[in-house]
Each structure stands twice: as structure tokens, then as C-alpha cells.
Amino acid sequence: MKEGIGERIFTLLNTLFLAVFGFLALYPFIYTLSISLSTPGEAYRSGLHLYPREVSFEAYKMIIGNPDMVFGYMNTIFRTVVGTVLTLLMTCLCAYPLSRKYMPYRRGITLFIVFTMLFSGGVVPTYLLIKGVGLLDSRWVYIWPVLITGFNVIIVKSFFEQLPDSYSEAAKIDGAGEFRILFGVYIPLSKPVLATVGLWTAVMHWNMWFDAMIYITDENKQVMQTFLRRIVIDNSVELADKGFVGGGIESLASDTIKAATVIITVLPMLIVYPFAQKYFVKGIQLGGVKE
Amino acid sequence: MKKLSDSPFRKNQELFLMLAPCLLLVFVFLYIPMGGLIVAFKDFRLSLGILDSPWNGVDTFKKLFSSSDFPLALRNTIIISGLRLTVGFVAPIFFAILLNEVRLKWFGRSVQTLTYLPYLFSWVVLGGIFQMLLAESGPINSLLISLGGQAIPFLTDDVWFVITLVVTAIWQTAGYTAVIYLAALAGIDPGLYEAADIDGAGRFRKIIHVTLPMLRPTIIVLFVLQIGYILNAGFDQIYNLYNPSVYDVADVVDTYVLRRLLTMDFSLATAAGLFKSVVGFMMVMFANKLARRWQGGGSGLW
Amino acid sequence: MLNRVYLITGSLVALSAYAIFAWLDHRALSAADAAAAIANPESVDWLSIEDDPERLIEISWMPLPRYPNGLEGAYGEVVLEKRFNVDIQPILLDKPGYPQRKPLMFAAGDIPDIVWDGNPSDVQKDIYHGCIRPIPIDLIKKYAPNYFKLISDFAPMGWLYADYAGENWGLPVIWADGGLPTPGVWRKDWLEAVGIEKEPETLAEFEEAFRRFAFDDPDGNGKNDTYGLTNTTIGWHLMFSEFFGAYGVLPFDWVERDGSIVWGGITSEAKEVLALLQRWNAEGVLDPEWITDGLGEKRRLKEKLMNGRVGYAYGMAVFNEFDTSSPKSLVSVLEGLNPEAVAVPAKLPVGPDGQRGVRNWGRASNTYVAGPGVVAEPLKLIRTLKMMEYQVGNGMDVYLESMYGKRGTHWDYANGNPSEGITRLAPFVEERSFQQKVLSVWTTEHPVYHEKSHAAAESAFNEKFRNPKHCLFNAIGRPEMVPSAQLYLEDLRAWQMNVYTEIIRGNFPIEYFDEFAEEWLLRGGAEMTEEAQGVMLRKNEIFASLGIENEEGGQR
Prior knowledge:
Chain A is mainly α. Chain A is built from 14 helices and no strands. Chain C has three domains: 35 residues; 221 residues, D-Maltodextrin-Binding Protein, domain 2; 247 residues, 3-Layer(aba) Sandwich (D-Maltodextrin-Binding Protein, domain 2), CATH 3.40.190.
């Protein structure tokens, strides 16, 4: 098909804009990667740090030799994988009934869930609850409390609502129950939105540290982000400000180690992305169904 | 007299069975701790517990709102958050549409992957990087000067600081948020575009008449959900880019509360949270009503 | 119909959630009750209690948080356990989590017997929340006389930090470096390049050097790309401290003027310094980026000195930065980046009235407090006191063992020579194994032993560049010592930082300072100032009871 001159200019500008945006988004990664591969002295040189001028793998060696990182990695992978799978399952189970127009009390129940997006009891009551249900110092504390979020339920629910009723009606005529309609028809059709919610959930789990910080004492159950935070913000001037004087103000970790830790934390999520991506890029069609 | 088998529960027992575990989880992990919200109206002592601490009425709220700094913090929050909810909300939609127009598959995919990257970095790390990039002698200002312009005080001028906040927030989240719109776009029947082609529609008309209407439900849902966070101006970002010269515009509700929150003042933290929740909830209810009207008597979010 | 269903179900849900929460809350409390046996603190007649050495006593102990995180069973802990027939259960939290975690544990009824508190305000909060119990001074004197003397001699302010309503609630610990000032650093090659031979000493000489750095092209690259100095806004306690010190004032602290306490930030001396800084900024002597250089920690500051943007940097003259054997030190990195660059420690500038100094926290730093468990079992506290006494009252060897572990196994003198300082032995060189296998419930530093354990090079460095007499201290220890600081201090501080920054940048005229000073008092400053007088009286009382008359010379 022939394109008009206006459309060609648009294509050009669009490509250019996206390329620039892409580069800008990449920059912190390049910067951090470059610092992490520099010698400690080189890291201090001012400039853009687009590439390391003197390469050194020292920082990576130090981190990989640290047993904390291994445990941190395992626990983070555990919570990300298990948390994402369970969240997707439970979110679908929750969203499907609420998306049915014939479901009684659906508005009230939806509001019941949306309410929790805005109101929360706060950190002390939640701690008492977590202690009460025996999740203190357990890896499952990473999973259960964040399994259902109003945000995910509403997103999936509204996607289900947009799917034509003809699918479920056809399945019902074939004698399928609600469970079979959900798992056999709706979930396969909802891959784009499930990939999105799955990706968001995975990233949330990957980046989460607050729960680990307040519920977990056992070092073997800590997540990687805890170690990252300890390395990146430990011993800052600010801590001295808050009364952490004594015990040495001098930072234990050099900039290269900080940067290498950041890279090691970010990298896996970057690698995983294309796998999720294929479900929401254009090209996946709704199975050629016509309304 | 209705028959038992007609009861809505019996008729839809499968649906209720699906819902039950979810509702139980929500009840246990999210509703039970809400009992602790009463601490906002108490003079909380750790050794007495929440229930047995003495009531102090609305004293905590008085303490929260009493300072001359509070109205300013509220104003700043609404400005920053308002910009994020408008400009910041439109940006990922715009971005998703642009991506959708890319014909080179590998290019689209790569740009998408790259733009999702910044979300993986925390502001503790990004703060240092932006300070370097945006400094008076930093690379961006050097570029401006070599192009014959003037250095811009991105981080120390009040107005520029707000602009920097909004732009960097978009930079960080646009690629990540755009995913949901891309997912919605993936569901568009190509037949619709073909039909538009036959009508002789150009690219822009197709965007306006096919792409945007398909995105509308997603846009509405996200907007209603996000307006609830009107009093959250993005604490982490502000905290890590803050400097005293922008105190006038950068002191938001969250930084204000943090300042008043000496280590153990949970009453104050809870009161502040409750205030934010109530305002957010009212906004969401209102937005949902609006959405239903806009959808022409549709159901809104619920 | 529908609405009624919602109403009933909603209320039922709310009620049951609340009921379950109430049960959880009470359960947490009863755990605390059991530990405390709700003993009335007065009911313990501390001095009449006899220790029974045969009895094994369990002590839960939450020490200074650190990283890498500690582990139970470290060498230091085991030594104490054997010697004092105690079973120490360390509760080791990491630094970033400590402030959040501690109150949560307390709320859930888990209050350890011995708890580390970072700030005096933490001690006050613990008392307010009813989580800790008093520790009578006489009891400390009875079981830990040397410890008592050490604190009274070297950090008497610690007793003020632990004081509430005339009673003592804590065991202060010492941070030895809190009594040493930290001057700035010059680029010596720059001083030479601009023709300054005598190292600047007075404020006027400092200014001259800064000006030449800014305008005389010290790096000889023909570009006008250098500045005299930069600074920070991230920590109020660091901001231009040596220049305020040259006028004898601490802008964010309580200072003494004619026998009463005033806020340093509203004094006329502070105004003079601001006028000076405003001028430096206007002339282009002060790097305009000083406002944001704090973001990302001290890094930018070091970077700017190393890369030749500024020729002077505050607060970096510590031995670590001048230790040629450490690859991370300022001198080593500088050597690698630019072999011609030479960094030397600066002197603190002498102001127009001959004053000089830089802010410091003081040696009194943190405080250990006692949870309710010590009332239920008084021997817990008594054994703790005996352990503290043991650590500081038995000579240098015992002290070093408490800090570094066993000599010959965990550490030794470098090359077997005490004058070369302490060096950790493999595998304890690594911070992680040192923290986890050696160090345990670390208590206090001993300033004399601490100094003695330094390598001769470090001692010489401190002797030469860090004169304890040049420390400036808050007259009552910390800004937050007054009760109404809770309400006003943080707001006022943020506002003051803003006003100072804007005055220095020239966005506000210097005359605005007077308006600021007046309004500062109206916004709660007056109330704080009034309370500060009372705190000062209490400090004097405590110091008098300890027999301290002259508190000059870093003895805080």
C-alpha cells in the first residue's frame, strides 16, 4: 500500500522519537553498568560513563562471593514465581464471578475489594495480624498478604467484561460449568491482560523489600532487595542524622560494588521481559471470532 | 415465598465457590488490620496496646493540620499529583499508540523493552544519576549551552523542579504503564482497520476512530483507579530529588508527615493515612459515577 | 431489599474484623505482661538484691544494628556467656530496618531486656510508651563503678540523654570519634598553582584562596571552569559548619549566650556568615551546584575535588581518606586519577574574633535501655552491668578482646608491632565474617584505649589535624532535647534550610534574615527556647552531681 508524504514524515518522526526515548530510558542502565565495570578510581571520574575506561570485574567477584546474595536471589525468585502464579490464579477466580452480569451482589462485592485499595489498617495492626497468623519469619509472608489486590481484580474483571457474551453462552449450551468456562474459554482468551498483570505482579514482587524488612529476621529468608538497600543506602549521611552515629561513618561499599549490585538485581527482570512481551504485542488475535 | 433453589446463592453456587477463597484472603489480610484505624483517635502507648490506649478524640488530627506548613504541603501535593494524573496519565496512552504505529517489529519490541527498564531502578539510585545529569555543569546543560542556550536550574528552581518531577516520572513509568494499553490494542480485530482502509481513512483517522475507542474502557478503568491516589505525589521520587531550595513546591503531604513522624508516632501516621484514604475514596466514588454516566449508563467499575 | 442485605453483611464483616483484631491486640499485650509481671518499678529494691553466680540468667539483647548482619554465637558473645553464666539471646537487626522494626516488636509485646537506642529522643519515646524501666544510678555505681566513671569523665552528656523526670533510664555509650573535629581538605597543588605558599588559616586567607581558585585558572586549562568550594544541604549538621564555626555559632543547634540558651540559627553571628556566603555565591566563588551535591551522598563532593572542579572540600580530613595503604582512600584514588594532584588536610578557618571550630555530635552517642524483663528478673540488669564493667574496667587487653576478638586468632598488631595498629587476621579481614563470628553485643568504646589501639600514623594524623578543642557542641547535646521539639523542630528546620539556601543564593536579601528570626520565634521557636533553659538547668544539676566544673575541651 502506498503511503502519503504526510504519513512518511509521521513514520520518520515517530521512529526518531521512539529511538530517542528508548535511549534515554536505557541510559541509567548503561551508566550503572559502566560504573560497575570500572576500577574504583575510574568510577570517580566525572562524565557520562557511557563505557568503562578501565575494566575491572572486581565488584562482581565480591558480590557473587557473598552468600547473602545467593539466599537473597533464591528467596526473591521464590516469591516472584510463586507469588505471580498464585496471584494470576486467584485474581482470575475473583474477577470472573464479578464480571458476570447475573452474579448477585456483584457491585457490593466489588466495592468490598476496591475499598481495600484505599484503606489499610497501617503497619502496627498488620504486624499484629501477621504475628497472629504465624507468618512472622516465614517465606509465605511474601505471598499471602499481597495475593489479591483490588487493582489487578478490576483490570482483569473489566477485560472479562469486554469479551463478548457469545463465548460463555456457547459454552453453556455445551453444558460447561462456570469453572470450565473460566479455564477453558476466558483465560486462554485473556492472555494479553494476564501477561500484563503477571508482569506487573512479578516486578512488584521483585522490587519489594518493605515486608522482608519488617517481618523477617532470619537472614536466610531475606530477599535480594534488602541486601541491595543495605549496600546502596547504608552508612549515608542521613543515617548519622537519625542518630546512627558511632560504628563508623565511612561507607563499607564502594560505588562500583553498589552499581554491580544494582545491575545484578535488575538484569533478570530485563531478561524475563521478552517472554511476557510476546503476549501483549500486536499480532495475537482473538481467535478470529466474529460478533 | 421463594423456593430455596431459587436463592441467588444456590443458583450461582459455583461463582460463590470461586470467590470464597479470595474474599477470605481479603478479609483476613486487609480487613482485620483495619480495626487498628481507631488508633487515629487515641493517644497510643505501645505498652497499653491499641484498644486500651486512652481516647483523645480528634487531637491527633488537630496536631496534623495545625502547622502552618500543612496547607502548603496540601497545595503542593495537589499540584504535583494533578500533573501526574493528567500529563502523566496521557503519556503512556500516547506512547502505546505510537508504538502501535511502528511497522518494524523488532524496533517496536526493542523500544518497548528499553522503556520498561527505568521502572526497575529505585529512586535511591536514580536520584544520584539525575543529580549528575541535570546539574548546572551536567551533560544536559552543557548541551544546551553549546547549542547557544542558557543553563537551566532543573533541580533548584521551583517551576523547573515540578517540571522535572513530572517529566522524570513519565520517563520512569510510561513504558511500564503502556503495557496495559498495548494489551488492549493486541485485542483489536484487524478487520476494523481493514474496514477503515476501505473507507479510505488515513493513519490519523484510524487512530482516532478505531484505536482510541478501543482503548476507552481501559482508559476509564485506570483513571478511576488512579484518581484515588490524588494525595500521593510520589514520595520516593520527591524524597530523593529534594533539596532545600525547592521546599516551597516540593514539600508534600508525605514529606510533611514524615517530618512530624518521630519514630513511634503511629497515631499521627494513621491519621494522615486515614485522611488520604477518605479523600481518595471520595474521588474514586465520584470518578466512578462520572464513568458510568460517560459510558451512557454502563456499569462503571462496579 | 438489596441495601438491607449490604447493610447487614457490611456490619457483620466490620464487627467480626474488629473483634478478631481486638483479640490479636490483647494477645500481644498479654505476652508483654507475662514478661514484665507488671511489676511496679518501685517495688524492686535494687540495692538489696544479691547476685547468685550459680544461676544461669537469660538475657535478650538488641544491640547496635549493623551490616553485614550479625549472628548468634559470635566469639564476643560466648566469652561473656561463659564468664558471667548468662545466656545472651542477641536480636540482631539490620540498620535500614531497625527504626521500623523496633516499635513493631514492642507493639507485639516483644520487648528485649536490653535495647539499643540511637538518639536521646528514642529514649524519651520509649519512656513515653511505657516500654522501659529506670536504671538507678546507685545500682550502676555499685556494679559498674569503672563504667560509671568512664562515662562521667568522657561523655557526661550521656547522663542527660538518659535522664527523665529526675531518674536515670539508660546506660550511655561512647563514640570516641564524636570528640574529634573533622576539618576540610585542600588541593595543595592548586594552592601552589595560584601562588599561595602559606596554608590558609584565617577566614580572610581562606576567602583569598577560594577566589584565586575560582578566577586564576588553577588547573591551567585556560577555561573558567573552577570554583573555590562546594558544600552540602543533605545534613543540617554539616552545612558550612567550619564557616559558622569561625563565628562561634552552630546554626541548627542550641548555643549558649550570656548564660542562657538561644537557637544558633537566629543569632547575629549566623547572619554574618550568611552574608559572607551570599557574597561568595554572587562572586562565583561558591560552586552553584552545592545545593544538590548532597544527593547521592558524599560521592559528588569527593568527585569534584578529584576531578578539579573545586579546590576545597569540607569534612574529609580523616585518616581513612589519607591512608595510602587503602585503595579506597582519597589520596589513593586521586593518585590514580591525576598523579599531579595533592590533597592535604586543611586547618579550620579562624574567624574575625579568633574563633574556630566545627560542629560535632560529642562522645555521648547512643544509650542502652532496659525493658520490663529486668524488673521481673533483676539479675538480668545486674549481670549486664557486670559485663559492661568487665569490658571497660579490666585494662586494655580485655577491652580489645571485646572489640576485636582474640589476639592471634582474630586480630594481631600489624607486623607484631603495637605502633603499627591493629590488623584483622584472615578470614576475619572480611567485614562479614568479622561481624558474624567475632563481634557480638558490642557495648561502649573506651576513648583512651581506642586512641592507644590506633597505629602511630593515625594517632599522629589526629594529633596534627584534629584538635579536640576545635569541636563545637550543642549546649544541651542535641537540638531535639526540648519536649516541644516534637511539634516544631522538624518543620522549623526544613524552613530554615530553605531560608538559608535562598539567602545564600541571593534569592532573598540578607535583610530577610531579621524577618525570619522573628517569625522563627512565633512559629514555636519561643516555646522551644524557653524549655531549653530548663534542660540547661537540668544538665547543670547532673554535671554538678558528677563533680564536673569545667566542661571545656571535648569532654562531652
